[in-house]
TrEMBL record:
Residues 20-239 form the Luciferase-like domain. This is LLM class F420-dependent oxidoreductase. Transmembrane segments: none annotated. It comes from Mycolicibacterium komossense.
Length: 301
């Protein structure tokens, strides 16, 4: 069990799972969560895009498991009021101490403005203001629980700094282990770094590369990720094509043998991550992760 002095997260192990289950029935998804726990993984982080509401899903997964930490990766701050995020997270924390992590993110301009009809402006200031309003929720709401542990989806240096000064750490996504190292250096010790790592297991080499490109298709059109990859040393003309170049795909996605894919995961731990959540890729975004997780668990634990 791993804990930090400044914010409690009771991860049963240092490696967890990131899984998009939004199109699964919640009953079937709960069964997947139970097997993830039984295999020895320490967490299940879930996204919030255009499907199910993430706090409700978190409650369902928490109730279906005994030790698994459930995290939001991430809860979109444009979807709910700061007070709703804070009070919802306090309630889950009160019911399941040490087992819920509220990951928050500013999302992306195309998703917010075109998909939601909202306004996307000054993401750093928007997040800072959102966190301040969360902190202003009075202590009479779930008294004695305290502030829920919260991480920020932080890619750039200023957002990483904010994740340390106004939150409990960062949840880097689609980054190299070296960027995990940079995040740790900016945050120092005492703050959580929970990095995501996509992996492609099984199939042919061609299949794995195709799954990686399919995974990167949407992300390669979003400015926040493009800027992150440029900071990490990739080239706009050759690597940031739609779906990513082969170089980008192989760098960001663990593929090859099960052992080679697992090595990408542990590289983030070596670079300073406290916990790594692996995302299993396949021929669709909501693929059943269990066959690959069974193979990976044999190598990782």
């Amino acid at each position: 069990m791993t804990t930090h002095e400044h914010a409690r997260i009771d991860f049963p192990s240092r490696i967890g799972v990131w899984w998009a289950s939004e199109t699964w029935s919640i009953i079937d998804a709960q069964e997947v969560a139970r097997e993830i726990e039984d295999l020895g993984f320490g967490s299940l982080f879930i996204p919030e895009v255009t499907g199910k509401e993430v706090l409700t899903q978190s409650a369902a997964f928490l109730s279906a498991t005994e030790r698994l930490v459930i995290g939001t990766g991430i809860a979109n701050i444009h979807i709910r009021l700061p007070s709703a995020a804070e009070t919802g997270a306090r309630t889950l924390t009160a019911l399941h101490p040490g087992r819920f992590v509220l990951g928050l993110g500013v999302s992306h301009a195309p998703l917010v403005e075109l998909g939601m009809g909202g306004t996307y402006s000054k993401p750093l200031a928007t997040m800072r203001d959102y966190l301040a309003k969360m902190a202003a929720v009075p202590e009479v709401i779930e008294p004695g629980v305290g502030r829920p542990t919260r991480l920020l989806a932080a890619l750039g240096p200023k957002m990483i700094e904010l994740s340390g000064s106004a939150a409990d750490g960062a949840h880097p996504y689609l980054v190299l282990p070296e960027q995990t190292r940079v995040t740790r250096e900016i945050l120092g010790e005492g703050k959580w770094v929970v990095s995501e790592q996509a992996v492609a297991v099984g199939g042919s080499a061609e299949d794995q590369l195709a799954w990686a490109h399919s995974h990167l298709e949407v992300y390669s059109g979003l400015p926040n990720y493009r800027n992150s990859w440029l900071r990490q040393g990739f080239e706009e003309e050759t690597d940031l094509v739609r779906g990513g170049s082969d170089t980008l795909a192989r760098a960001l996605v663990g593929m090859g043998t099960v052992e080679e894919a697992a090595a990408k995961v542990t590289a983030h731990l070596d670079a300073g991550a406290d916990h790594v959540v692996l995302q299993v890729l396949g021929d669709n975004p909501v693929v059943d992760p269990r066959p690959a997780l069974r193979e990976l668990a044999k190598v990782l634990f």
